[in-house]
Amino acid sequence: MGGGKKAKPDRLADFAAAAAATLPGEVWDYLDGGAGAEWTLRENTAAFARRTLRPRVLTDVSRVSPATTLLGAALPHPVGIAPTAYHRLVHPDGEVATATGAAGALHVVSMFASTPLADIAAAASGPLWMQLYWLRDRAVLLDLVRRAEAAGFDALVLTVDTPTVARRPRDARNGFTVPPGVAAVNVAASVMASSHVAQDGSSAIERHSREQFDQTTTWADLAWLRERSPLPLVLKGILTAEDTRLARAHGVDAVIVSNHGGRQLDGAPATVDALTEVVDAAAGLPVLLDGGVRSGRDALVALALGARAVLLGRPVVWGLAHAGADGVRAVLNLVVDELTEAMTLTGRPTLADLDRSAVSGTR
Ligand SMILES: Cc1cc2nc3c(=O)[nH]c(=O)nc-3n(C[C@H](O)[C@H](O)[C@H](O)COP(=O)(O)O)c2cc1C
Ligand SMILES: CCCCC(=O)C(=O)O
After folding, report:
1. Quick check: CB of 294 below 6 Å from ligand 2?
2. Which CB contacts under 8 angstroms, 24+ apart, belong to 280-285?
3. Would you say residue 7 lies in a domain?
């Protein structure tokens, strides 16, 4: 940048800088922050940086395509949108703008989306998956599932790394509270009330989760959800071979390797470091990954190690904050263009040509 002109962002870091400069401090901290000492948050990106690529040459890369399929749906590329809450915190059109900007990409919508599911679906042109936290009030949970089904969502994503929202020191310090003009409009207001109640030195979303999330949930409860919805079920927040085998045994349709972007268990491994153990245990069950993907090169590493798709959390919100739907589209295009270039230069013209031989350990 420089020269006094506002340069067009051409790296994800530029979108982050623009969002940091314009968003209110407590909103930026909520978006950017992590749990505990933020070790896992830093490790997610650091672990990608430690990997090197092993290029092959003379493979005919005149036609490179990142196209793929997932749960029966065709996707133009394997870069999707992770569920993040309350998009109206950063842009008045919220998740509707996100859905427009997704432009055919996989879009996982948060349970705490701040615009109606039907409006999000009307703006979408690619697969829509509905993310859920297991509420104590199962009637409210089921009502959300019904709304997602009615809006034409394609799958349910149960987030399993959040029996309660972890202590996030920045949010606690800021007394972070969901402001009155922004709300999780797809969930009964009575269940969301405490997320709007401020208290000095404590995060309202952490208090809210302790009050409303069901901490008794076990693998046996998945059957309750499966019996009530025909939609495929995906588990988000898997980091071990043991839990991957349990997911398979319980008939789950896909798993997402995730540490919630370093916002839940601080000390959990970087997602790229947990990926191969999960892929090996998955025995063909589709595995996705989120956490720390900040370039097409990172995406290529995860795909080579066996992820079927990667999801972007914070970068999509940076794009949304910067320029609404156009910003979301720009962020996705940037990563997909980098991925396509990395496929070209590593000599792997399709995702089927990518395997672990494209990546080496540590540099
Ligand atoms: C502001 C914010 C809100 C989030 N809200 C949710 C949510 O509602 N549901 C959920 O399952 N994950 C949520 N996540 C976690 C993301 O889905 C994802 O795991 C994480 O952001 C990926 O890491 P990245 O931000 O490094 O790409 C949230 C993350 C952020 C940053
Ligand atoms: C109740 C939690 C809010 C959304 C979330 O998962 C996050 O902020 O990471």
Report:
1. no
2. 280/241, 280/306, 281/241, 281/242, 281/244, 281/245, 281/248, 282/244, 282/248, 282/255, 282/306, 283/248, 285/244, 285/247, 285/248, 285/252, 285/253, 285/254, 285/255
3. no
Which ligand neighbours the alpha carbon of 44 most closely? Answer: 1
The answer to whether the CB of 172 falls within 8 A of the CB of 216 is: no
- Find the domain containing 135 and state its range: 22-61+72-360
Looking up residue 57, the CATH number of its domain turns out to be 3.20.20.70
Residue nearest to atom 30 of ligand 1 (CA): 84
pTM above 0.95, yes or no: yes
- Ligand 2 contact via 187 beta carbon (within 6 Å): no
In a domain, 11, yes or no: no
- Structural domain contains residue 16: no
Tell me, using a 6 A CB cutoff, whether residue 27 lines ligand 1: no
Buried b / exposed e over 49-72, threshold 16 CB at 10 Å, is eebebeeeeeeebeebebebebbe
Ligand nearest to the CA of 210: 2
Instruction: Determine the Cα–Cα distance for residues 295 and 312; give it in Å rounded to an integer.
Output: 10
Q: What is the count of structural domains for the chain?
A: 1
Instruction: Give the residue, out of 162, 236, 258, with the most ligand 2 atoms within 8 A of its beta carbon, to mutate for a pocket test.
Output: 162
CA of 144 relative to ligand 2 center, distance in Å: 17
List per-block mean pLDDT (blocks of 10 residues) for the chain, which spans 363 residues: 60 96 98 98 98 98 98 98 99 99 99 98 98 98 98 99 98 97 97 97 98 98 98 99 98 99 98 98 98 98 98 98 98 98 98 97 60
Q: In the annotation, is 260 catalytic?
A: yes
The answer to whether 84 and 316 have CB atoms below 8 angstroms apart is yes
Q: What is the model's pLDDT at position 8? A: 77
Looking at residue 9, its pLDDT comes to 83
- In 3D, which of 347, 362, 222, 354 has the Cα closest to residue 279? 354
Query: 1 in a domain, yes or no?
Result: no
- From the alpha carbon of 205, which atom of ligand 2 is closest? 1
Residue 4 has a pLDDT of 47
Is 131's C-beta closer than 6 angstroms to any atom of ligand 1? yes
